[in-house]
Amino acid sequence: MTQYSDAVKTAQAYYNSDDAENFYSRLWGGEDIHIGLYQSESEPVIEASNRTVARMCEKLGDDLKGARVLDIGGGYGGSARFMAEHYGAEVVSLNLSEVQNERGRRQNADRGLDKLVTIVDGDFENVPYDAGTFDIVWSQDAMLHSGDRIRVLEEVARVLKPGGIFIFTDPMQHDDCPPDVLQPVLDRIQLETMGSPGFYQRELEKRGFRLREFEDHTHQVPRHYGGIRETLESREEELRDSAISNDYITNMKNGLQHWVDAGNAGHLSWGIMIFDKQ
Known about the structure:
By secondary structure, the protein is of the alpha/beta class. It has helices spanning about 5-15, 20-30, 45-60, 80-85, 100-110, 150-160, 185-190, 195-205, 220-235, 235-240, 245-265, and strands at about 70, 90-95, 115-120, 135-140, 160-170, 170-175, 210-215, 270, 270-275. Helices cover about 45% and strands about 20% of the residues.
C-alpha cells in the first residue's frame, strides 16, 4: 500500500473534509477548482475556470486528439471530461480525495464518459502506471500541495513517452520573490515552500524536457482569489446554512486575502507552462 507523504496527507484530509467539499462543490459547481482566466471583473468563477481548461486544450491542439492523458491532481475530473468530450482523449484523472473522486465518477457515468475518463485514487508522488504510458501529462494548480515537487517531476518524466508533452498551471512564487514575504500564504496551505517558473524550468530541463512556452497570466491571481472572497462574502449566509462551519468560512476569507495581497504585491506567478520531453 502506498504511503503518502505528510504534505499529501494534509491535502487529502483537507479536500476530503465536509467543509471543503461543500465549499468547492457549491462555488465551482463540482466540476473543477482551478484558477480562472477572467475577461471581466464580474465574471463568475465557473466560467473563468472553464476558460482556463479550454485555453490549455487550444495550446495542445491536434496533439490532444485521441491522446492518452494523465491529469495529476485532477480534482472533480472536469478537465478530463472536457478533453474527452471535445478531443476524444482517453484520460486518467489521478486524485487524492476519495470524496471528490466519487462525485467525479458519478458525473462521468451521467454524461456517458466512463469509458474515456478513468478516475483513480492516488497521488502524484507515486503514479501507479508504467514508464512511457502517456502522451500528455496535465496538471492544474495541484503541484503546490506536494512537499516533494522534484519527486512529482520525476514521476511525470517517467510516465511520459519520449516526445510527450507536460502542460500545467501552478500557483508559484515569483522568481525574484523576497524571502519570508509569502509566509502567510504558506501557513494557509501548510507548506514550507512554493515552486517558481525558474524552478520548474531548471528541474525539468535536468530531466530531459525543453520549455516550449510559458504563457504568463499572473495578473489573474489576485482577480481570482479576490473574486472568490467576494462571492463567499455575498453568499455567506447560504453557505453557513449548508453545513460549512463558521471557522472554515472565517479562515477561508483570511486565507484568500493573503493570496490577493501577495498577488498585488508582485510576489506570485501563474500561467500555462508547456514542456516537451526530448
